[in-house]
Amino acid sequence: MAKREKEGGILETVKTVVYALVIAGLFRTLFFQPFWIPSGSMKDTLLVGDFLFVNKMAYGYSQYSCPFSMCTFIDGRWFGSEPDRGDVVVFRHPVTGSDFIKRLIGLPGDRIQVRDGVLYINDEEAVQEEAGTFVETFDKQGPVGNLPQCENAGVALGQDCLKSRYMETLPGGTTHSILNVRDSRLDDTPVYTVPEGHFFFMGDNRDNSTDSRVSQNAMGVGFVPFENLVGRADRVIFSSAGRSMLFFWTWRLDRFFEEIV
């Protein structure tokens, strides 16, 4: 009798674990996917160590909505809803399969160009207004331990790392922060015409972002197909400036539940 009770207890434990995994998998597939910010390409909108949930209901579902892209039975996109210009989006890189997070700049049919560091969409300038200086400590950031890039190059460890900050307004009225580190080759680009069914993305930290300004053949992002969109990032849930979320003294309490704009 004791042996049967023990076996029954083990079976119930296994069933409970299986049910929990199924429920977690369905939640992650249909509703929200957790995402850690690993790099500085979206500063100062998103910082290294920000934790957020990606809204997977925003644009419908594709094969990339499932963990490990397992939903191969989905052809194209189910219950698809077009994203808006200015959305902060997590998408699957068309070549590497890695998850990226960037701001949606170009919709299908748009002509995108950067001239002298200023963005133009269909020949309309995205007006930039000076918004002071973004200041952070020049030190290792996040689990990877990357150092930030600074406009005041050559700063010592532990000192202030500075970047010029601007508020950029996209056609349609979305206003968001962007940073400048240096003059770079991506400050002047050719005209990109976004193909049908694709989108054009850029990072807010413009000089420290691998995005659609560089083709996939040149190790960039290029144009991203609609089916590769995973979801929209709406709000930072948790944020830690340290190497681990367990280092409570590095938590950024002011960023908890902050809306992403």
TrEMBL record:
Coiled coil: none annotated. The lineage of its organism: Bacteria, Pseudomonadati, Pseudomonadota, Alphaproteobacteria, Rhodobacterales. It catalyses: Cleavage of hydrophobic, N-terminal signal or leader sequences from secreted and periplasmic proteins. Residues 11-236 form the Peptidase S26 domain. One of its GO terms (biological process) is signal peptide processing. This is Signal peptidase I. InterPro entries: LexA/Signal_pep-like_sf (IPR036286), Pept_S26A_signal_pept_1 (IPR000223), Pept_S26A_signal_pept_1_CS (IPR019758), Pept_S26A_signal_pept_1_Lys-AS (IPR019757), Peptidase_S26 (IPR019533). It is a single-pass type II membrane protein. GO terms for molecular function: serine-type endopeptidase activity; signal peptidase activity. Belongs to the peptidase S26 family. It comes from the Bacteria. PROSITE patterns: SPASE_I_2, SPASE_I_3. The chain crosses the membrane at residues 16-36. One of its GO terms (cellular component) is membrane. Its main location: membrane. Pfam families: Peptidase_S26 (PF10502). The keyword Transmembrane applies. PANTHER family: CHLOROPLAST PROCESSING PEPTIDASE, SIGNAL PEPTIDASE I. Keywords: Hydrolase, Membrane, Protease, Transmembrane, Transmembrane helix. The active site is at 41, 102. Its EC number is 3.4.21.89. It is found in: Membrane.
